[in-house]
Design a protein that fits this description.
This protein is mostly beta strands. It has eight helices and 25 strands. 10% of the residues lie in helices and 27% in strands.
């Protein structure tokens, strides 16, 4: 409507938001236009409600992407709101830029008239400055009469419990009992609710105590709240009671449908590597081509054959899946607004337990063909969250075949709590108490499925590399449980530890010792050691079935022979680099010998772990060494064979 610089409800747009789903705005122009700039004004009702504004936006022009990224949050007030408008330029032509500048000079949204400022200043001149620090009740009443609100402080008998990050306010003028005027520094600590309230609800999900609508959202609107409560006619006529979930008693049925909504970003194809249907007795359902029917659903909701052979789709259920080449994987063309349906007639009702999904696992680039959202329907009953299950992207090719399957549990509709959300961090102000210098500036509270540690070098040893243990902590500072099926290790020579080398059979320093919980020790039976070769990386994968939000990592370096400990390493989450640095060389056994990597600005966690943060270039700068190529080559030839190492536990 052209009114963009506003906080008025009558000139802003607000709609329900469902995490994991796309929300579209279509603008159909009457004829072809050449776009030079797009300006986006975010939701600006108030400071607290400005967090309802859009964050990640994709813009397509005639189905061609022209912008993908985050846009600025509105300030929540009129002053400076024009500076927070997101300007997306598509040209650097000076004449066009000058035309935009001239337009903005006459646009009331970008160049608000100064008359309103003069009016405010003239009104302020007529007002008498309110008195302060008088200490007399009658003057306090006069101040209240001039529009000042009386501050209510707790009495001496009342106790106020406060916790959380403290904030220092400017000095406040106070009057002592003797009548002297002093300045007192105010420190305010906002309360932090516990994770779970007494009534069992989550305070982080319950933003306020406003009445909830039928869809679970807090009500908002420019109408009287009484009209909304107990009046079903206040809801849109299109709202259907079918949206409310019903709880089936058992997960049993005959006709199973898998709906593939989207992939991880490939614009042309969508694919899968393998599927397994696990029954209640832990056996695998045998699926053949006669049981499968593949269709595609267009944007208009119609169904039509997708020219897909059921025999081709039956390859999804033929293992072993982790050994399949890219030519053996199932792949179909990908179109916008088209969903593929894989229908399986099991012949008779079956009791189902869970699914195992192997996503498309070609090259690193081709892993983006893999399915991202998938819904499961059993006899017309949905067994998935509203947006579908979030399917983990495959890790890509590795030196050895690893089981990269994701287990998707089947729960009844009444037991579901919703689609897991990938938390991308917080943009809150960082206080000095919540900041600590690290070698790499990590993101705040990153989240993902696959955590990959790439071990690049050791402190001294050229042939072996090891660790005592690794622990991950979530956004609530809780230890993330890691089971052996979540841990995958890929090392030089295609092994997971030295126990798989011919001359080290029986060595207890195996991969699962990384997660056995006994980390601060000199006992070799609780350490991990693997072969190492310069120029190659050893990779440690933590693969989870649901997204994990990370706040802290604790790492214990190898302690038996400290030169074999990790020196340089990388950490990637879902193929995105989030940390690069050094690991402190291990010392003699002692308390609190781990190294911390922080992904949070919570002052309690930062103050507790500050002493465990290691910055290599501050404590141990690298030495400057000169090498003679000929002499170095001779040394390499002398030590080309790996020295033997083994440890057998005493009986």
């Amino acid at each position: 409507d052209g009114v963009n610089r506003t906080c008025d409800d009558m000139h802003v747009w607000l709609a329900p938001f469902t995490a994991g789903r796309h929300h579209y705005i279509f603008i159909d122009l009457s004829c072809s236009f050449v776009v030079s700039m797009i300006r986006v004004w975010n939701y600006n009702k108030s400071r607290i409600h400005s967090y309802r504004g859009a964050r990640y936006v994709e813009i397509h022009l005639d189905e061609n992407p022209i912008f993908k990224g985050e846009i600025q949050k509105a300030p929540g007030c009129l002053r400076g709101s024009e500076e927070n408008a997101e300007n997306i330029l598509f040209t650097m032509d000076e004449s066009v830029l000058c035309a935009i500048e001239q337009h903005d000079a006459n646009d009331i949204n970008m160049n608000p008239q100064t008359t309103e400022v003069h009016v405010e200043e003239s009104n302020l001149k007529d007002l008498e400055r309110p008195k302060t620090a008088s200490g007399r009740k009658n003057e306090a009443k006069q101040e209240q009469g001039h529009g000042m609100k009386e501050q209510v402080l707790p009495s001496e008998t009342e106790s106020v419990e406060i916790s959380g990050p403290t904030k220092r306010l400017p000095p406040q003028v106070v009057v002592t009992e003797s009548g002297d005027i002093e300045e007192e520094e105010m420190i305010v600590t906002p309360p932090i609710p516990s994770r779970i309230a007494q009534d069992g609800s989550d305070p982080f999900m319950r933003m306020d105590r406003r009445p909830l609508g039928l869809d679970g959202r807090p009500m908002t609107g420019m109408v009287e709240m009484g009209k909304l409560q107990g009046n079903s006619s206040s809801f849109p006529s299109s709202f259907s009671s079918d949206l409310l979930p019903s709880s089936p008693t058992t997960i049993s049925g005959r006709n199973l449908t898998l709906v593939l909504h989207s992939n991880w970003g490939d614009s042309e194809t969508l694919g899968l590597c393998g599927l397994d249907i696990i029954l209640q007795d832990d056996s695998k359902l045998r699926v053949n081509a006669s049981m499968i029917l593949v269709t595609c659903e267009g944007a208009d909701g119609g169904h039509e054959a997708a020219c897909l052979d059921s025999t081709y789709a039956a390859s999804l259920f033929m293992g072993p899946h982790e050994l399949k080449g890219e030519e053996e994987m199932w792949v179909v063309p990908h179109y916008p607004y088209v969903k593929y349906r894989i229908n399986i007639d099991m012949g008779e009702p079956r009791l189902l337990k869970h699914f195992c999904v192997w996503n498309y696992n070609g090259s690193i680039e081709n892993t983006y063909r893999g399915v991202k959202r998938m819904s499961i329907v059993l006899d017309n009953r949905s067994l998935s969250p509203p947006a579908g299950h979030l399917v983990r992207k495959a890790p890509g090719p590795t030196r050895i075949s690893i089981d990269f399957s994701q287990k998707i549990c089947l729960t009844s509709l009444g037991e579901r709590i919703g689609t897991p959300q990938i938390f991308r961090g917080s943009s809150s102000i960082i206080t000095p108490e919540g900041y600590v210098m690290q070698e790499y500036e990590p993101p705040t509270l990153p989240s993902g499925f696959i955590f990959k540690f790439s071990l690049i070098s050791t402190w001294d040893d050229r042939f072996y590399i090891g660790l005592n243990g690794i622990q991950l902590y979530d956004q609530f500072d809780n230890l993330v449980p890691v089971h052996p099926r979540n841990l995958k290790v890929v090392c030089t020579e295609g092994v997971t530890s030295i126990a798989e080398l011919p001359d080290c059979v029986g060595d207890p320093r195996t991969a699962e010792k990384i997660i056995d919980g006994v980390n601060d020790t000199n006992d070799e039976s609780h350490m991990w050691l693997a072969p190492f070769r310069r120029g190659e990386t050893n990779n440690i994968f933590f693969m989870f079935d649901e997204p994990i939000t990370l706040s802290l990592i604790k790492i214990w370096n190898y302690r038996k022979t400290v030169g074999r400990g990790v020196k340089e390493f990388l950490l990637s989450i879902d193929d995105t680099l989030v940390y690069k640095g050094h690991l402190r060389r291990a010392t003699a056994a002692g308390e609190d010998s781990w190294q911390s990597i922080l992904f949070t600005h919570d002052r309690h966690i930062v103050s507790r772990e500050r002493g465990h943060v290691y910055v290599h270039f501050q404590e141990e700068p690298d030495e400057l060494l000169f090498f003679d190529d000929a002499e170095e080559q001779e040394k390499v030839e002398e030590q080309e064979s790996r020295p033997r190492t083994s440890f057998l536990p005493s009986k």
